[in-house]
Amino acid sequence: MKSTVIKYGMFGLLTGIVIFLAAILLGKEMSYSTQEILGYVSMAACLSFVFFGIKHYRDQVNNGVVSFRKALVIGVLISILVGVGVGIADYIYTTVINPDFASEYLETTLKTMKSNLTAEEFKVKKVELTKQMTDYGGSGFMAFLMFFTVVLIGFVISLVSGLILQRK
Questions:
Q1: What are phi and psi of 96, to 5 degrees?
Q2: Helix (H, G, I), strand (E, B) or coil at 167
Q3: What is the pLDDT of residues 77-94, one digit of tens each?
Q4: Phi, psi dihedral angles at 114 (to 5 degrees)
Q5: Beta-carbon neighbour count of residue 63 at 10 Å?
Q6: Helices assigned H by DSSP within 27-118
Q7: Alpha-carbon distance 71 to 57, whole Å?
Q8: Can you tell me where the transmembrane regions are (predicted)?
Q9: Phi-psi region for residue 132, left (φ > 0), alpha (ψ -120 to 50) or beta?
Q10: Tens of pLDDT, residues 131-164
Q11: What's this model's pTM, rounded to 2 decimal places?
Q12: Where along the chain do its domains lie?
């Protein structure tokens, strides 16, 4: 199990870093909402290694058998490695490539909100969002949030993959 987790986790980790950095470099002119969609698509692509890792373990390592519990453990461990890769890429982006990301994101989001909300709603939302960005806008927290998001999505994919791939 350990070699399967490391192998497929590293595939996902490296894929996550490459896709994340490629999207950043190629998507500079895209809107933040388009970049967000691209980010979730890239997370799903990286987490596809969860399914393939469980399938590999079942078919190649464990003689065609895997329990739901074992499949879930394998999937979550692979997801953790993928999350580490995406978290590292996010940290590098927000500290080295674009250290002004938090302020740029806040500015862009506020512009969008201003055009979509009434003046009174905008004032309230602006205070809330500005406080959130001040409290949680650090690179370390953003990287942790990316890690957590990937692991959470990976957990769901692990559940589904475990249900599909389990064999007794």
A1: -110, -55
A2: strand
A3: 999 999 998 888 888 888
A4: -60, -35
A5: 9
A6: 32-56, 68-92, 101-116
A7: 9
A8: 37-54, 74-93, 141-165
A9: alpha
A10: 777 777 678 888 898 899 999 999 999 999 999 9
A11: 0.82
A12: 2-98+138-165
